[in-house]
Amino acid sequence: MKPIFVRGVSNQFRLTLAIALSVLLIVANDRLAPVRQSMATLLSPMQYLANVPGDMLDSVAETLATRNMLQRQNAEMLRQQVLMSERLQRFEHLRQENERLRALLGSPLHMDARKMVAEVMQVASDPFHQHIVINRGSQNGVYVGQPVLDSQGVVGQVTEVSAITSRVLLMSDSSHAIPVRITRNDVRMIVNGTGELDEVELRHVAKSTDVKVGDLLVTSGLGRRFPEGYPVARVTEVSRDDAQAYARVMAQPLAALDRIRYLLLIWPDMNRNSPSEPAQETTQPAEAESQSPEETVQ
After folding, report:
1. What is residue 281's predicted lDDT score, i.e. its pLDDT?
2. Cα(238)–Cα(213) distance, integer angstroms
3. Residue 251 forms beta bridges with which residues?
4. Which residues contact 240 (CB under 8 A, 6 or more apart)?
5. pLDDT tens sequence across 40-85
6. CA separation for the pair 21, 34 (Å, rounded)
7. For 5, what's the count of Cα atoms within 13 Å in the CB-facing half-sphere?
8. Residue 182, number of CB atoms within 10 A of its CB
9. CA torsion, points 185, 186, 189, 195, in degrees to nearest 10?
10. d(CA 165, CA 162)
11. Nearest one of 207, 179, 205 to 192, comparing CA atoms
12. Which of 13, 272, 264, 14 is nearest to 117 (CA)?
């Protein structure tokens, strides 16, 4: 009976053949280099084709990762944009405040006048009285009757003083009056408040008085309350009626009374002391001059 599986080549023969082929390949290695290059060239497309699935997976993974990264970066940049926008808004506010302070400190003051910046804390809600409260008081050397200005002109005068705050009566109040002169011809008049923030009146002006629309009114220095030369208002209307004994002269305050925030307190030489305490009282200037540099500007 014949066996099912016929016995093949013996293992000794296979070993001998493998050794012989190995020796032959070692000897012919240099001569087979062109053949290997040709075969590599023929097999290269297959290698690229075999790598396509892996490359596609890598590309998809990179695309997803890049998209997620871009989304995160976009969200972070949007967040930073919002933060920077808020900072820019604050910087714009600070820039405007800085410009107002620079304009305030550059107002036309006499060089020998000491000055201090004050901030408005409260505006009067009483329609019959126009005054404000500022954050400076007797501790800063503020005194009753002290002139108050903004970057454009006279605002009013201090009427009440406490330790850390003061009340300022605006020049537009109906009870307020300022001696002024016209810069064009030095004609002297008195500006009276009308109760309106954007309008003041020059009363008892003779019809023959040389006053014109556009004339600039500055403090005359009479009464020793407001020093001479500070802008007050500009004439906006001159009406001469034969039926009236006096001309009707209206003016507009130069100070922005409807939107003041920062004010300037001044200590001119003539007003370093209260008018009721002229020579012997010198404690207020000393107290004021002892303030910190950020509060007082020499």
Report:
1. 37
2. 6
3. 200, 235
4. 207, 247, 248
5. 677 667 766 777 787 788 778 777 777 778 888 887 887 777 667 6
6. 19
7. 3
8. 20
9. 80
10. 5
11. 179
12. 264
Checking if the pLDDT of 276 tops 60, the result is no
**235 pLDDT above the threshold of 70:** yes
- The tokens for 40 are 């590599």
Contact 183, 254 (CB under 8 A): no
d(C-alpha 22, C-alpha 176), whole Å: 121
217 pLDDT band (50/70/90 cuts)? very high
Tell me which amino acid residue 19 is: I
* Residue 144 structure tokens: 């009753």
User: Is 80 exceeded by the pLDDT of residue 121?
Assistant: yes
d(C-alpha 296, C-alpha 290), whole Å: 9
Please give the structure tokens belonging to residue 295.
Answer: 């509060």
Cα(281)–Cα(258) distance, rounded to whole angstroms? 36
Going along the chain, which residue ranges are E strands?
114-123, 131-134, 147-149, 154-161, 166-170, 177-182, 188-196, 199-206, 216-219, 231-239, 246-253, 262-267, 296-297
Dist CA 227 CA 232 (whole Å): 12
pLDDT for 27 equals 82
Identify the H or E element spanning 89: helix 33-105
pLDDT bucket at 297, cuts 50 / 70 / 90: very low
List b or e across 153-168, with b for residues whose CB sees 16 or more CB atoms inside 10 angstroms: bbbbbbbebeeebbbb
Query: Which one-letter amino acid corresponds to residue 20?
Result: A
Question: What's the Cα-to-Cα distance from 192 to each of 91, 253, 295, rounded to whole Å?
Answer: 40, 11, 32
